[in-house]
Amino acid sequence: MLLGRKRKLGRMIDEITIGEKLSLTEKIEDKDLLLYLGLTDDANPLYIQHDYASQTSYKKPLVPTIMLTGIITSAVSKYLPGPGSHVHKQEITFLKPVYHYGTIELLFEVTDVNRSMNTIQIRVEGTNEKEELVIQGQLAVSPPERLARMEGQALENF
Known about the structure:
Blueprint: E1 21-27, H1 30-40, H2 45-48, H3 50-54, H4 65-78, E2 86-94, E3 103-114, E4 119-127, E5 133-142
Antiparallel strand pairs: 1-3, 2-5, 3-4, 4-5
């Protein structure tokens, strides 16, 4: 519950099929980068200093790869399979850098459903605004579990 309201869970394992896809477009804005950098206290000049980055082979400040990973795992938590799911393995390759103010389009596809283990495999690919492949990855995800009803029961930790 969130402030007295029940939160709707994502889809259970028996509601997911191989081949399902999700497309998500994210524009990387200053506010997103500043929130990430403030939260992590990451002062890498390659992420925040235009003058430094301009002297490197990248030429412009980069979006931290862990921030991109956060966008990917957030999409799993929000949409596929959704709230209540858990990423327990990820292999992500960052083929090309993503720059400040860039737009990234992420395509997720369910490649395997293992009902007995309550896990699904999701492939993810990300392209930039030039339609270049910049991210490839594979995620192992446990969809939300079907919970027993708790009518009339009290939980000790609340």
